Amino acid sequence: MDPTPITSRGYQTLKKELKYLKSVERPQNIKAIEEARAHGDLSENAEYEAAKDRQGFLGRRISELEYKLCNAEIIDPESIPKDRALFGCTVILKNIQTGENVEYQLVGPDESNITEGRISVVSPLGKAIIGKKPEDEIVLKTPGGKRIYELVEIK
């Protein structure tokens, strides 16, 4: 399996979530299962069923996080050349129609958060930006019509 690129910040976020699930959520869930069992008949015990469902969710999420962390390749955005847009870099785009500038960091899917200015490299806009150089035009087809951007700067 190919390594998955991730920033140090994204790696630490996943690691923190994994630790929380293992040290807080899972023990709380085990306790909830024990308490629900103490109520007697398990065949009609909604609390028990909910706790078992939660246990399944936690197990899957823990496995998913462990897999992602094992296959992660931490990329330092500072080490990336600034001649073209690549994973980890921050870009400033100018919307040709409105004249507004927007700033985005290109990150992995687990790190993306549009309100914080981080977009995934696998999103339509992220895919369109990758490999572009300053002054290149980026054309993006959206449900609302075509959007055209100019790559102003790579930070």
Short structural description:
By secondary structure, the chain is α/β, with parallel strands linked by helices.
Description:
The chain has 155 residues and is of the alpha/beta class. The protein folds into 2 domains: 4-74, Helix Hairpins; 77-154, Roll (Chitinase A, domain 3). It is 40% helix and 26% strand. A hairpin with a 5-residue loop joins strand 3 (90-95) and strand 4. The radius of gyration is 22 Å and the shape is elongated. The chain starts with a strand and ends with a strand.
How are the secondary structure elements laid out?
Layout: E1 4-7, H1 8-38, H2 46-70, E2 72-75, E3 90-95, E4 101-107, E5 118-120, H3 124-129, E6 137-142, E7 145-154
Parallel strand pairs: 1-2, 4-5
Antiparallel strand pairs: 3-4, 3-7, 6-7
Helix pairs in contact: 1-2
Helix content: 40-55%
Q: What is the CA-CA span between the terminal residues?
A: 30 Å
Strand adjacency order, main sheet: 5-4-3-7-6
User: Describe the biggest sheet?
Assistant: 5 strands, mixed
Count of separate structural domains: 2
CATH homologous superfamily classification of the largest domain: Transcription elongation factor, GreA/GreB, C-terminal domain
Helix/strand/pairing class, anyone?
A: alpha/beta
Tally of strands = 7
Low-confidence stretches: none
Tell me the fraction of residues in β-strands, as a range: 25-35%
Mean pLDDT: 92
**Would you identify the CATH architecture of the largest domain?**
Roll
- Taking all Cα atoms into account, the compactness measure Rg is 22 Å
Q: What is the H/E string?
A: EHHEEEEHEE
Give me the number of helical elements. Answer: 3
